[in-house]
C-alpha cells in the first residue's frame, strides 16, 4: 500500500473523528493529508469509500481476535481467558473504542454506508468452533456452540463494549481482567464437565 494512500487514510480518520462523517469534506481530508484533491480521489473515489475503508479495517481487528483455535493440550479455561484478554485488549483501547463509537453512530444515521459493502463474516465462528471442539474432546458439555459463544462474548461486551459505545469510560486493565475471569468462570459453571 502506498505511503500517500496511508497518509490520506490517516487524514480521513482524523477528520471523521473530529467532525463526523457528514461534516467531513474531501477538501479537509486533502488539506490534512497534504495532498491535492485529485490525488485523494485517485486513491479513494469518494468520502463514502474512505469511510468504508475505515469500517473494513476496524472490523478486521475484531475478526482477527475472534479467529481462535482449540488446543487439546491446553486447559480450556486458559484458552477462554486468552480469548478474553485478546478481546479485552481491543475493548480497553481508547482509540479502538472511539472508532467504534464513530462507526456505530454513522451506521445508525446512514445504514446505506454498510448495506453497499456489508461484510457477511460470522465473527463468532472461531469461538464457536473452539467450544464445539472442546466439547467433543470432553472438556466442556456444549449442546449449542453458537449460543455458548454468544453468551461468552455477551458477558464481556455487556460490560466492556456497549456501555462504552454509549459514553461510559473505557474499562481499566484491572476491571477488564476481573470481567474476563468472571466471564470464564460463568461459562465453566454452565458448560464445564
Automatic annotation (TrEMBL):
HTH tetR-type domain segment(s) = 2-62
**Residue spans binding DNA:** 25-44
Q: Does the keyword Lipoprotein apply?
A: no
InterPro entries found in the cross-reference section: DNA-bd_HTH_TetR-type_CS, Homeodomain-like_sf, HTH-type_TetR-like_transc_reg, HTH_TetR, Tet_transcr_reg_TetR-rel_C_sf, TetR_C_Proteobacteria
Is 4Fe-4S among the key words of this record? Answer: no
The record's keywords, sorted A to Z, are:
DNA-binding, Transcription, Transcription regulation
Query: What terms describe the molecular function in GO for this protein?
Result: DNA-binding transcription factor activity; transcription cis-regulatory region binding
Pfam entry (one): TetR_N
Per the record, the domain of life is Bacteria
Database matches in SUPFAM superfamilies:
Homeodomain-like, Tetracyclin repressor-like, C-terminal domain
User: What protein name applies here?
Assistant: HTH-type transcriptional repressor Bm3R1
Amino acid at each position: 500500500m502506498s505511503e500517500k494512500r496511508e497518509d490520506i487514510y490517516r487524514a480521513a480518520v482524523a477528520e471523521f473523528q473530529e467532525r463526523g462523517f457528514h461534516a467531513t469534506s474531501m477538501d479537509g481530508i486533502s488539506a490534512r493529508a497534504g495532498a491535492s484533491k485529485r490525488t485523494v480521489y485517485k486513491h479513494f473515489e469518494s468520502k463514502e469509500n474512505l469511510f468504508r475503508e475505515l469500517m473494513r479495517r476496524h472490523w478486521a481487528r475484531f475478526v482477527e481476535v475472534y479467529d481462535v483455535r482449540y488446543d487439546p493440550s491446553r486447559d480450556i479455561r486458559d484458552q477462554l481467558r486468552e480469548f478474553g484478554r485478546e478481546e479485552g485488549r481491543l475493548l480497553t483501547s481508547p482509540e479502538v473504542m472511539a472508532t467504534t463509537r464513530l462507526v456505530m453512530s454513522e451506521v445508525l444515521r446512514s445504514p446505506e454506508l454498510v448495506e453497499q459493502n456489508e461484510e457477511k463474516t460470522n465473527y463468532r465462528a472461531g469461538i464457536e468452533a473452539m467450544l464445539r471442539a472442546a466439547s467433543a474432546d470432553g472438556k466442556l458439555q456444549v449442546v449449542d456452540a453458537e449460543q455458548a459463544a454468544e453468551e461468552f462474548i455477551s458477558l464481556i461486551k455487556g460490560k466492556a463494549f456497549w456501555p462504552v459505545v454509549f459514553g461510559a469510560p473505557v474499562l481499566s486493565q484491572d476491571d477488564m481482567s476481573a470481567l474476563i475471569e468472571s466471564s470464564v468462570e460463568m461459562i465453566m459453571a454452565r458448560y464445564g464437565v
